[in-house]
């Protein structure tokens, strides 16, 4: 996937379509993580680019949902 991205990064039709999609996916992940009843430190992990959603899921699965505080 990364090599595909490098090969097509300057192709305007693809970058104009994938760019907004990527940004929307990032925002949705961050917003959904903030809606979960997790500790604040776990929520902040959602803001890490590329792997934030995975970090939140990993931490949530390990500790289980906790009361928002």
Structural class determined from secondary elements: mainly alpha
Tally of individual helices: 4
The chain-level mean pLDDT equals: 76
Spell the H/E element sequence: HHHH
| Rg computed from alpha carbons, rounded to a whole number of angstroms | 15 Å
Largest sheet: none
| Total count of strands | 0
Helix content: 55-70%
Q: Per the principal axes of the C-alpha atoms, what is the gross shape? A: elongated
- From the N-terminal CA to the C-terminal CA, the straight-line distance is 39 Å
Taking pLDDT < 50 over at least 5 consecutive residues as the criterion, the unreliable ranges are none
Strand content: under 5%
Per-chain topology:
Blueprint (H helix, E strand, L loop, with lengths): L1 H7 L3 H24 L4 H5 L7 H12 L6
List descriptors.
single chain; 4 helices; 69 residues
Give a written overview of the molecule:
The protein is elongated, with a radius of gyration of 15 Å. With 69 residues, it is mostly helical. It is built from four helices and no strands. The model has no long low-confidence stretch (mean pLDDT 76). It has helices at 2-8, 12-35, 40-44, 52-63.
Short structural summary:
The chain has 4 helices and no strands.
